[in-house]
Amino acid sequence: MMTDFFGSLSKIKYEGPNSDNPLAFHHYNPDEMLMGKSMKEHLRFAVAYWHSFAWEGGDPFGGRTFDRPWFGDEMSKAKLKADVAFELFDLLGAPYFCFHDADVRPEGKNFAESLANLNEIVDYFEEKIAASDTKLLWGTANLFSNRRFMSGASTNPDPEVFAYSAATVKSCMDATHRLGGQNYVLWGGREGYETLLNTDLKKEMDQMGRFLTMVVDYKHKIGFKGTILVEPKPQEPSKHQYDYDAATCIGFLRKYGLEGEIKLNLEQGHAILAGHSFEHEIAVATSEGMLGSIDMNRNDYQSGWDTDQFPNNTPEVALAYYHILKDGGFKTGGTNFDAKLRRQSIDADDLVAGHIGGMDTCARGFKAAAAIIADGRFDGALKDRYADWDKDVNQAMLKDQSLDSIFDRVLKDDINPQPRSGQQEKLENMINRFV
Length: 435
Fold this sequence. Notes:
single chain; alpha/beta; TIM Barrel; 2 domains; two-stranded antiparallel ribbon; 10% strand; isomerase; EC 5.3.1.5; cytoplasm
C-alpha cells in the first residue's frame, strides 16, 4: 500500500552538477558506464533499515526527536514501516537494502513469538520485493540491544544466551536465504569486555570461534550461496571488542580455520574508531583476499563516538573505492549506507536528502578512483618503487637463499644502499588532481 509519508515527492532523477535542485542527483547517474559497468552495478547502493526507519533520533544525553507514524510494537506498524521503506527505496532507485531482525519486527514475549513476528514480516517483504526493483544485500541479527546480551552473545558466560543467540542467527539466516539475500553479516557489538577482572579471554574467543563455525556449517546445510561477513569495530559499546579491526578479524578467522569461508564487512566509522583510515582497512582486507562489503558513513572528527553520518568527504571516499576497484570491485557485497540523520533533521525529505548526498559523494569518489586507475601514473609510481624486487637475484632472497648466502653477497658485491625518496608529496599532489 502507498503511504503519504513522503508527500508529493517523485522519483529522484540525475540532473547533473549544474542543477541547484536539492532533491536531485548531481553526480550519481546510475546508467553512466565506467570500466565496463554502469555506476549502479559498480556501487551497489543499499539503504540501512535500522538507521533510516528504526532509529528514533536519540543520543547518549537525550531521547527520541523523530516522530514517525510506524513507531510502536504492533505488527500493523511494522508493515507500515515496510511500506514507507520500500517507498524510499523506489524514490532513490536503490538496488538493495539491509536489515536486522529487531529493525523489522516487534519483540515478542518469548523467542517463539519473536520468530513468528519475523516470519510474518518476511512474508510481507517477499511481496514488497516482488513488486520492487530493490533486493536484499544482506540480513543480520541484532545480538546487542536487548538486555539479555549485556555480556555478549556468543561470548556470554551464560550458555543459555549462547543458545538463544544461535537460534536467533539461524532464524535470520533462514529469512535472508528466503529473501534472496546476497550476504549474511555478523557484528559482535558486545563480543568483548568491559573489564578483564571478570573476563576469560581464551574461553570467550573459543566460544565465538565455535559460533562462527556453526554459522558456516548451517550456510552449507541450507544451500545459502551468499557470503558470510563479519564486521570489525574496536569498541563502543564494549570497552574492547574482539573484532577490533580488519587485521584482528583476519587473524581470528585464521585461528579457527574460517578464512576460506568468511569475509569482512568494513565500515568507515569503525575504521576511524580503531585509529585507521578507511583506505587502510580496505587495503588490509584486499591484500588478504578478504574484502566482502562496506558500510559507508563517516564520524565527526571532533566527537569520540560512532556518529554514523552520511559521507561527504570525496577524497576519503575516492581512496576507498580505488582499493576496491584494484581488487576487482564488489562481488556479492556493495555500498550500504549505515548512516543516520542528525537528530535535528526531522523532516521526511531530510531522509531523502541524506541518501542523495551520500550517493553523490560516493559517485564523485568512485569516478575519481576510476580516473586514477585509467591515468596509470599512480600505479606506475608504486610499481617503480618496488621494481628492483623483480630482479632474479633479489627474488632469490625471498625464496631459497639463507642468511649466510646473503651475507656473502653483500661482502662480495660491496652492497652499500643509499636512501631513496618515497616521493609522498608528489603522490599526494597527483591524487589531489583527481579529487
